[in-house]
Amino acid sequence: MSEVRVRNLSLAYGATKALDDVSLDFPDGQLFGLLGPSGSGKTTLLRCVAGFVFPDHGSVMIGGESVERVPVEKREIGMMFQSYALFPNMSVADNIGFGLKVRHLDKPEIARRVGESLELVHLEGLGDRRPHALSGGQRQRVALARAIVTRPRVLLLDEPLSALDKALRSEMQVELRRIQREVGITTIFVTHDQEEALTLSDQIGILRAGRLVRSGAPRNLYHVPQDRFTASFLGEANFFDGKPEQGGLRLASGALLPWPGQKVEGIATLAVRPEEMTISAAGPAHGNETCAISGELVRISFSGPTALCLVRGEGQQFSVLVKNSELTEIPVSGPVTVSWPAARSMQIRD
Ligand code: ADP
Ligand code: MG
């Protein structure tokens, strides 16, 4: 078992709390996506796990044992960062095998493992090349091969794909996931890209200003975000504030957003994803299964297969995502009704 656990980690740089009482489990063999805005403490958390910095408080455990007294090179960790400096004057094979050489493995064993790694990252036959003779994506693969050739217990990836253009980036996301599954190393993947985290991760943790906001499975966090930050950081969300009453949430404008079941008690905010809403010209939908708001269309922004419609209604603005094929049904002037299934309203607790 090589699960990683951090408990009550705190680390301050002067007045800045880079980490503030963070406790998290990174399960054995899983890919854990660590997500948060710039400056939220993601890199600092990785550096604590790797042993480059020491927390003021709290502990790091790898495979059930505290690593407090274990130096970086003995923690059996593979790393890959955005700037994955390869040695320019060494061949690809020597770059990958470097960590084995410093561990004094014999030559045939190094050659065997480097060969295996080249195969794993689909760079067979390129071992003799120099890094400058590779494409950006290929260099990335070399860096990944180098990080896992030593068979580390834990793989730490700090925004490894953020320097790549969009197409290459999605290709490398798929590759990274495949390779991680094949080798089954416990992996902590840092990114500030929500979509990337949702696509790749078995579990996600969200950091904000050094604190852990939420953690859980991607779908769960997306559909049941519970707090405002998670709801708006993982995708887009429209918020409706009001007073809870029997049967729903009463907005300041007087409109009632029905809520199936009695759970809305005590909840003063509902959030709705733009893709759950539909726009029509018809009057308000009735019944307690559907939420409906009347308003007017402010703007439509096209983005290829979909368009985001900005609607003003009930004293606020909100976004509705529609398929391009549905745009023709939307009235360009006059009142519109925006509706969504009441069950798609998400309760926000803060
Ligand atoms: P992230 O990786 O999420 O962008 P970091 O972990 O790098 O965030 O940084 C968290 C906070 O700690 C930031 O406010 C950053 O400025 C501060 N910080 C990080 N490293 C240092 C350092 N060596 N000295 C001073 N402040 C630092
Ligand atoms: Mg960082």
Bound molecules: adenosine-5'-diphosphate, magnesium ion
Q: Uncertain runs with pLDDT below 50, 5 residues or more?
A: none
Distance between the termini: 37 Å
Secondary structure class reads alpha+beta
CATH superfamily of the largest domain: P-loop containing nucleotide triphosphate hydrolases
How much of the polypeptide forms β-strand, as a percent range? 35-45%
> What's the quaternary structure here?
single chain
Helix content: 10-25%
Helix and strand pattern: EEEHEEEHHHEHEHEEHHEEEEEEEEEE
Please tally the β strands and state the result.
Answer: 20
How would you describe the shape?
elongated
Mean pLDDT: 92
What top-tier CATH class of the largest domain fits best?
Answer: Alpha Beta
Specify the number of helices. 8
How is this structure best described in words?
The structure is a single chain. This protein has 350 residues and is of the alpha+beta class. The protein folds into 2 domains: 226 residues, Rossmann fold (3-Layer(aba) Sandwich); 113 residues, Beta Barrel (OB fold (Dihydrolipoamide Acetyltransferase, E2P)), CATH 2.40.50.100. It is built from 8 helices and 20 strands. A 6-stranded mixed β-sheet has the order 6-7-8-3-9-10, sandwiched between helices. Strands 13-12-11-14-20 form a 5-stranded antiparallel β-sheet. Strands 15-19-16-17-18 form a 5-stranded antiparallel β-sheet, with no helix packed on it. Helix 2 runs parallel beside helix 4. Magnesium ion binds next to helix 1.
